[in-house]
DNA sequence: GGCGGAGTACGATGTTTATCGAACGATAGC
DNA sequence: GCTATCGTTCGATAAACATCGTACTCCGCC
């Protein structure tokens, strides 16, 4: 498979600011690609895994959720792996709130970058109106 | 990565019919998933590879092409691998014509199965009107 | 200050994937 | 029948990927 951001890639800077959380999203140490840096192949790769597709479908229904709230059928370290793939592909945005990460879809960035792509994937996954594919709603 | 149709999977039946080629597409021994069997994750996986995305983008511009006609920068065995992934995901249809395979997009099947998905991916790849992403046209 | 929870980093394992070369089969043309 | 072409299969390699357990950090709460 083509090399994508994944395990072994340089981790996000771990320096901690003294500011309280949610001062500004940019204050969080998690790195996110700029909208123009989002690569189509990385987005499609991120969405091609059933676990990650499930995460994205759930976020489409209810945004701003913590990692734990998805109740994924894998261990915490695997969850961390999947959320990182989604974040580094530019599909989700994560920001720190205390000990949790609030995850949300980068809907506007993705729509600007690849118009209609996210919506068509979500429809295909059975989210939103007219969905007839696999059940993706948690 | 999740298990998909790929290397090692049961090959298409190798029985040969005595009928001349292109009598009917169904006479070709290549197996294609029925439209309702096309899985979203497999389609996204197939399209997440830059080489396969290039193939699909080229077919969007000019359908019914032979494997060789794409002039892909990989060996013939790797080409065979990629075309098989696309066919088994249900993205392309292949039919035999002499020593060649004619490849074409399963546009209608994909549109019926996942409305808008292929078009949005092609736009994102820079094919068709309004495309502004990476150059995908050969 | 201690405890619990959320999530991470690290290292490991097993599987999947993309790549290739060599040998081969099928077809077309002569 | 021979040759050339297209494409395949097989086996191999290296890299990528999903998975996990362990130990850890950080934060919130008491």
Write a short abstract of this structure.
The structure is a homodimer of 138-residue chains. Chain A is an alpha+beta fold and 138 residues long.
Can you give a write-up of this model?
The structure is a homodimer of 138-residue chains. The longest helix of chain A has 14 residues, at 76-89. Chain A has five helices and three strands. In chain A, strands 1-3-2 form a three-stranded antiparallel beta sheet. The radius of gyration of chain A is 15 Å and the shape is globular. Chain A has a domain at 30-124: Arc Repressor Mutant, subunit A (Orthogonal Bundle), CATH 1.10.10.10. The first copy, chain A, is α+β, with helices and mostly antiparallel strands and 138 residues long. Chains A and B meet through helix 1 and helix 5 of A and helix 1 and helix 5 of B. Chain A binds a DNA duplex (30 and 30 nucleotides) through residues 1-4, 6-8, 11, 14, 16, 21, 49, 51, 66-68, 74-85, 96, 98-101.
Through-space gap between termini of chain A: 29 Å
- Name the average pLDDT of chain A: 79
Write down the secondary-structure element order of chain A: HHEHEEHH
Q: Main sheet of chain A: which strands, in order across?
A: 1-3-2
Q: What's the level 1 CATH class of the domain at 30-124 in chain A? A: Mainly Alpha
**CATH-defined superfamily of the domain at 30-124 in chain A:** Winged helix-like DNA-binding domain superfamily/Winged helix DNA-binding domain
Structural class of chain A: alpha+beta
């Amino acid at each position: 498979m083509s090399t994508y951001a994944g395990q072994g890639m340089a981790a996000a800077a771990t320096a901690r600011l003294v500011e309280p959380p949610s001062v500004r999203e940019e204050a969080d140490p998690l790195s996110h690609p700029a909208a123009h840096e989002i690569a189509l192949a990385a987005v499609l790769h991120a969405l091609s895994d059933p676990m990650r597709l499930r995460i994205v479908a759930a976020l489409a229904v209810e945004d701003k959720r913590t990692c734990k709230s998805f109740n994924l059928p894998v261990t915490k370290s695997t969850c961390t792996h999947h959320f990182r793939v989604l974040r580094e592909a530019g599909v989700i945005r994560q920001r720190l709130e205390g000990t949790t990460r609030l995850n949300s879809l980068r809907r506007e960035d993705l729509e600007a970058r690849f118009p209609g792509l996210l919506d068509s994937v979500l429809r295909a996954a059975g989210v939103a109106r007219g969905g007839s594919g696999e059940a993706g709603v948690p």
